[in-house]
Structures are given as C-alpha cells and as structure tokens.
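Model: Ready when you are.
Researcher: Fold this.
Model:
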Amino acid sequence: MTTKDDRPSFTVENADIIYRNFSGLKTKFNAEGQRNFCVVLDEKVADQMKADGWNVRTREPREEGDDTLNYIQVKVNFDSARPPRVILVSSAGQTPLNVETISTLDYVDIATVDVQAVAYSWELRGETGITAYLKKLYVVIEEDELDLKYSGFNRS
C-alpha cells in the first residue's frame, strides 16, 4: 500500500502492540524523547515487509511451545510537518491525543488498536533501510463498570 505522496505504508487492524513508550522515556533500549511502540506481525506479512526493506525484528521463543514473534517498531513524531492522528476511543467518545497527552497510552488497558504507518527511507554509512512512522492510531480502551458508569456523567 502507498500513501498520497507515494510513500509505502502499512495498516494493521486489530493489532497487537508491545513495548509501548509513547512518553519517550529513556530506557535500556530507548534514547530520551524517542516515542515509539511495536506492532506484532504475522509471519507472512513480516517476510514480505523484510523483503521490501522494512526493519522487521524477530524475537525467538522464550519458552517451549511459544511462537517466534515478528514485529516492527513504529516511531511517533509530533515535530514533523504532518504529525500523527492519534485517537483514544471509549464509551465517552473519541478523544484526540497530542504530544502532551499521548503518554496516557503507556498505561491504559487496550481492547483493540488500528495502526497506519508510513515509510521513511534512510541511508547511513552505506547501509539503507525503511523506518516506520506513525500516521494514524485508533486505540479503543478496555473499560470496567466504573468507567462505563461515569462515561456520560454530567453534573448539571
């Protein structure tokens, strides 16, 4: 799939996302300020994306009986000319998230996620690759009885 500006892209509906760092916290594997998360890919999609030059990673099974995990990191950049559209969906409606509020996604319980990312081709010291940047993200949160009770609360 490509976008209007002919950049390769991908969309995963009902995605599993792992390694959430929407706040951009410094960790063993992440520099301070770099917001990102990873999308789990099935084997067929992962193989095709690897062949196309995307930076797909593989984690070997940790325990006997586990499957190999294929995933791609998606960077979240609000400093670009086209910041991503990030929507938190709940029974109260849709809430757009921005650079100040996106860190909420590090902690919410997620029911479903739809992700759309675009490619950025890079070259460094003779090496090339494709990095995924977030274009759209719709996150439906898991709600309990209290969330539902107060979702339409109005004090008037």
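Researcher: Now this one.
Model:
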Amino acid sequence: MSKLLSRIGSGLRGIRWRGLAVDALIAIVLLLALRAWLQWDLASGPAPDFVAADLAGRPVALADYRGEPLLLHFWASWCSVCSAEQASIDAIADDHALLGVAMQSGDAAQVRAHMAREGLGFRNLNDPRGELAARYGVTAVPATFILDGEGGIRFVERGWSSELGLRARLWWLQRRGGA
C-alpha cells in the first residue's frame, strides 16, 4: 500500500510541476504581449535626427554620438515611475553615452532645478511641448531607446527599466562594435 501511495504522490508532484510550468509559460507570453502592445507606436529603424540645445545651452545633435551606443531616455519631472528609475539612469551615464530628454516638464530653468534637487548629472535636453518626443512616438514616459553606433534604434522600452537590463543591452552593442 505504501508503494502505491508513494507512486500516487510522485505522480501528483509531476502534475503539479507541469501545471506550474504551464502557468509560468502563460505568464511569460502575456508579459511579452503586453510589452509589444506598449511599444507598438514607438519609433524603430533609423533614429529621427535632431539638433537642439542641452540645458547648459550647448548644441547637441544625434550625429554627435555616432560610433558608440547611445541610451536616449525620455522622462518627465512629474512622472513617479521616472523618479523611481532616475538613480539607475544617472549611474549608467557614468559609463555609457546617455542623453536625457525632459518631456513637458516646464522650462529649462525648472528642469535644471529638478535635476539639481534629485542629484542628476546626465546631459539633458528640454522638450517642453513634446515635439522631439512625438518624433520618436513617445506618448508616455519613461521611454528609453538604445541606439547603435550608426544611429539605428536597436532596443526600446516604455515604462520602468532595470539598470542591469539596460547595461546588458549597451554591453551587447559595444561587443558588436556599436553596430
């Protein structure tokens, strides 16, 4: 009898593991579908070119970053998710080319004051009317684009992104020579 109960128990454990595996697979498929839905309207292919002034008044163009991967990060001072990931974004700027775009966050002085309060030091553009954001299809922040060294959009994220995930993508592009 104990052998029979043991076989039944091990059979049930097998069924339980298969059920958990199916549940995990369904969750992964749903998360990937949600990610695709959130990103369907974001720019892809060659990154829309721009020339603008950063918060210090210095000219900056997308072409300035040719030859190296670039993390182009759209954010807003009023966005709580943006605030939650700002320290990670700022840390990435210590090791990689990063350009922030403050979308609809007030004038340049207000954005500079916000960045100073938060201790953020990455180079940033101000996009008070969301015009640059619209060129990239950004309607919600945060939105992050990782461009290769030739200005092509290789990865996009809408919503919170982990520092590790962003660094891994930048590392991968660097290993491939930025292209």
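Researcher: Key takeaway?
Model: The chain has two domains: 1-40, 45-175.
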